[in-house]
């Protein structure tokens, strides 16, 4: 792991130079390919040390972090051309990537908590520094207080674990606790980060005010921190999980259905995509909390798939916003007339969002349906509604934005540029390619 960390640390001084924007982006893709080829053929535990290590769960999420950070730079070309503090922007993304890699490779509970919370700070700077409207300050405060307030009980829980076990390494923590408050303290921070329905209000605000890079990292990686944290924490809270998880599974399934209704009445492109993320994370959370093999494997594969798919949809929303200056669906309609070649990408990514074959989303959702229905037959009602309305709001997004009469006749035709097509291809292609290597999602346990 050290070679990748040093690679990123030594990229940081380049941010002081001019005209290194694209070089840093190419270096991030180089790190990604190095990480694939150097680590994938190793054993189950790779590059393990006293504080850091990488197993199959970490491997996929670290790779996703590097990939999304490279694509964030590709999507933020306007920051480079407008000279909008592009060096500081590069610095924030590299620091964020460094913290994310340290988070996913921590094998100590305190290290994980430290880097997990630290990754919030660069994200906050991205939203406040490069957001679109003055309301970004309010959304930044929402993000900060929602996540910090839920994280403080977790810190107390970590101190309690150290007092009992004299160690905070994941593999040395015992599994014989019977304390509901300890259970709540340890998982509350992750439920807010996912986010679970009822503690989700910070997410739409943060997404709507964030720049495209902020939305991509929020949807692509930071929502996955919650799921990753739950997988790690449930390894030593199994008994408590079996006892109390049904509360959160019920809230997640019911919340997913309610959020799907909210999606159907959104008129803001980014807000609709943000609420759809909450619905998808609801089914991930319910599958994860059943604590079956199907649920854990399905939630892991859907987290990877959703990271690529949701990030690509935010890129598409930004492409329309750059041309029309608005995210409203009332203005962003008839895009088939304005940008006919971009309609194909809208179709491909919308179909991935509603889990059409051959995307990785389909594999994840089938596994999660297996898991939750085998946990309780009664949950089939909620899951069928969730699947139906997921398709309904995705079709609503696609048909409302692509069809209809285009209002603004200043543009007769506007093609995308090669950078945008490459950006969307690099989101969509891994999403469909990973289905060929689907066994890697089921080998990590």
TrEMBL record:
Superkingdom per UniProt: Eukaryota
EC assignment: 7.1.1.2
Topology of this chain in the membrane: Multi-pass membrane protein
Keyword flag DNA repair: no
Record's subcellular location: Mitochondrion membrane
Domain (NADH:ubiquinone oxidoreductase chain 4 N-terminal) ranges: 1-103
Domain NADH:quinone oxidoreductase/Mrp antiporter transmembrane stretches: 107-389
Primary location group: mitochondrion
Cellular component, GO annotation: mitochondrial membrane
Keywords: Electron transport, Membrane, Mitochondrion, NAD, Respiratory chain, Translocase, Transmembrane, Transmembrane helix, Transport, Ubiquinone
Entry function: Core subunit of the mitochondrial membrane respiratory chain NADH dehydrogenase (Complex I) which catalyzes electron transfer from NADH through the respiratory chain, using ubiquinone as an electron acceptor. Essential for the catalytic activity and assembly of complex I. Core subunit of the mitochondrial membrane respiratory chain NADH dehydrogenase (Complex I) that is believed to belong to the minimal assembly required for catalysis. Complex I functions in the transfer of electrons from NADH to the respiratory chain. The immediate electron acceptor for the enzyme is believed to be ubiquinone.
Protein name: NADH-ubiquinone oxidoreductase chain 4
């Amino acid at each position: 792991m050290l070679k990748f960390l040093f690679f990123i640390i030594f990229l940081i001084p380049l941010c002081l130079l001019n005209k290194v924007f694209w070089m840093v982006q190419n270096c991030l893709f180089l790190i990604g390919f190095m990480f694939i080829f150097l680590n994938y053929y190793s054993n189950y535990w790779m590059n393990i040390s006293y504080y850091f290590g990488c197993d199959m769960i970490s491997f996929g999420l670290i790779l996703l972090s590097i990939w999304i950070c490279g694509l964030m730079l590709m999507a933020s070309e306007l920051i480079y051309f407008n000279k909008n503090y592009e060096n500081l922007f590069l610095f924030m993304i590299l620091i964020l990537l460094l913290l994310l890699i340290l988070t996913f490779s921590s094998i100590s509970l305190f290290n994980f908590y430290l880097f997990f919370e630290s990754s919030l700070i660069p994200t906050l700077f991205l939203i406040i520094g490069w957001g679109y409207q003055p309301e970004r300050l309010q959304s930044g405060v929402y993000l900060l207080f929602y996540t910090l307030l839920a994280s403080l009980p977790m810190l107390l829980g970590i101190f309690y674990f150290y007092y009992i076990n004299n160690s905070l390494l994941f593999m040395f923590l015992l599994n014989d606790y019977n304390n509901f408050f300890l259970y709540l303290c340890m998982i509350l921070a992750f439920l807010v980060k996912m986010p679970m329905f009822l503690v989700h209000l910070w997410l739409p605000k943060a997404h709507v005010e964030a720049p495209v890079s902020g939305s991509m990292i929020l949807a692509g990686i930071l929502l996955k921190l919650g799921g990753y944290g739950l997988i790690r924490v449930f390894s030593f809270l199994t008994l408590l999980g079996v006892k109390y998880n049904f509360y959160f599974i019920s809230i997640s399934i019911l919340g997913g259905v309610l959020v799907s209704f909210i999606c159907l009445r959104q008129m803001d492109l980014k807000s609709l995509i943000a609420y759809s993320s909450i619905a998808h994370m609801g089914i991930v959370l319910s599958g994860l909390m059943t604590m079956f093999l199907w649920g854990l494997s399905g939630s892991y594969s859907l987290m990877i798939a959703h990271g690529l798919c949701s990030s690509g949809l935010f890129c598409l929303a930004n492409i329309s916003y750059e041309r029309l200056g608005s995210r409203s669906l009332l203005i962003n309609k008839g895009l088939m007339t304005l940008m006919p070649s971009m309609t194909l990408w809208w179709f491909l990514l919308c179909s991935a969002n509603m889990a059409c074959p051959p995307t990785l989303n389909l594999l994840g959702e089938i596994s999660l349906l297996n898991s939750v229905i085998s946990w309780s037959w009664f949950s089939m009602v909620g899951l069928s509604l969730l699947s139906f309305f997921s398709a309904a709001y995705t079709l609503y997004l696609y048909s409302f934005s692509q069809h209809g009469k285009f209002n603004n006749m200043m543009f007769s035709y506007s093609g995308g540029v090669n950078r945008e097509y490459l950006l969307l291809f690099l989101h969509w292609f891994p999403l469909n390619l990973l289905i060929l290597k689907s066994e890697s999602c089921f080998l990590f346990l």
